[in-house]
Amino acid sequence: MKPPIFDGSGSVPRPSLWRRAIVFFITTLCFVYLYYRLAGAAAREGLSLVGYMSQVFANVDWVPWLLLMMAYSCVYLAIDTLVVTRSLKWFVREIPYRDILPIRASAYIISIFNEQIGKGAMAYYLNKRDGVPGWEVGSVMLFIMFCEMFYLLTWATIGFLFSREALPESFGLIPPIALGAAVFITLWIAFFRGKLLPESQLRDKQLLHAFKLARIRHYGGFFLLRSPALLSAVVVYTVALNFFGVETSLVSMLGYLPVIFFAATLPTPMRAAAITSWVILFPGNEGQVAAFGFVQHNFFIFFNATIGLLFLRRAQRELFDQ
Fold first, then answer.
1. Is 59 helix (H, G, I), strand (E, B) or coil?
2. Cystine design at 287: which of 43, 56, 85, 166 (Cβ 3.0–4.6 Å)?
């Protein structure tokens, strides 16, 4: 049996050349910008770039940071699994949380390389173990990814309203973007309810099955289920940043973090776009926040994968001992 994937072709398609070119271009810009800013910060301190960054890393409170991040990863896994469990119950059928947990955790291993392949692995697992059609699981994963963008934008807007005075002027684009997104999702829901373009057959596509079933309460439910992850991240990132020698407030972090998480979704190596965002948002602390962004985002990914290894044997046993 071939792993079910989202396009129905039987394999995971390679990104197109132009998409890879765009990612390469963005990554190059990020690294050039980071080098320029870090070299400038090192020069102000009268140090070489290596000496400057070595000093930054030497001054981090590593033990409390490590304990904090390990706890946060566990909380995130619990919330992430709950979101998947409830979404499957809404649009496919009920599968117990304890049965979703092993594959949700194990998929983090694959997600080191590609988040979409990780979700495809979940679809294959649920298809083989529980007999759930791959296209149904794929539809739920598309619903989750779609809602994730609006959930982050909603919190970015809330953060802007609470901390606009502490945010860069460029964040003033958030309200008009949020307004446009609100109009879009209103039309989106109306379309899948059949009230807009009722003759269109697009809503009947298998991979859009979850959107056809979704009601406003499902979008709201996703926001409520996922929000504890963002709110806990605001606290964790504020405290963790202090371990790197940079102080900020919870209110300011509420404005920053959803935007940085948007940047983290870009498939740039070593989360270069997210690291660059930290440097832009905290001028004067280039070395500290560059180090913070690098270890924070990459540790989160790799420690989640480590948690996945703890569940991998059970996942393999359930998958192959059928």
1. coil
2. 56
Residue 223 and residue 154 in contact, taking contact as beta carbons nearer than 8 Å = yes
pLDDT at site 7? 46
pTM score of the predicted model:
0.88
The more confidently predicted of residues 69 and 124 is 69
Confirm if 137 and 127 have CB atoms less than 8 A apart. Answer: yes
Burial of 255 (0-12, 13-18, 19+ CB in 10 A): buried
Angstrom distance (rounded) from CA 160 to CA 257: 11
DSSP class of residue 9 equals S
Closest alpha carbon to 137 in 314, 312, 6, 311? 6
CA distance 273 to 128: 37
* Structure tokens, 73: 């990863």
Average pLDDT over residues 20-36: 89
For the cut 60, the answer to whether the pLDDT of residue 145 exceeds it is yes
Mean pLDDT of the region 272-284: 90
For the cut 80, the answer to whether the pLDDT of residue 115 exceeds it is no
Per-residue confidence (pLDDT) for residue 16, from 0 to 100: 67
Is residue 178 within 8 A of residue 157, CB to CB? The reply is yes
As given in the structure block, the two tokens for residue 206 are: 């298998």
Query: pLDDT tens for residues 176-203?
Result: 999 999 999 999 999 999 898 888 888 8
pLDDT reading at 11 higher than 50: no
C-alpha closest to that of 259 among 241, 285, 244, 237: 237
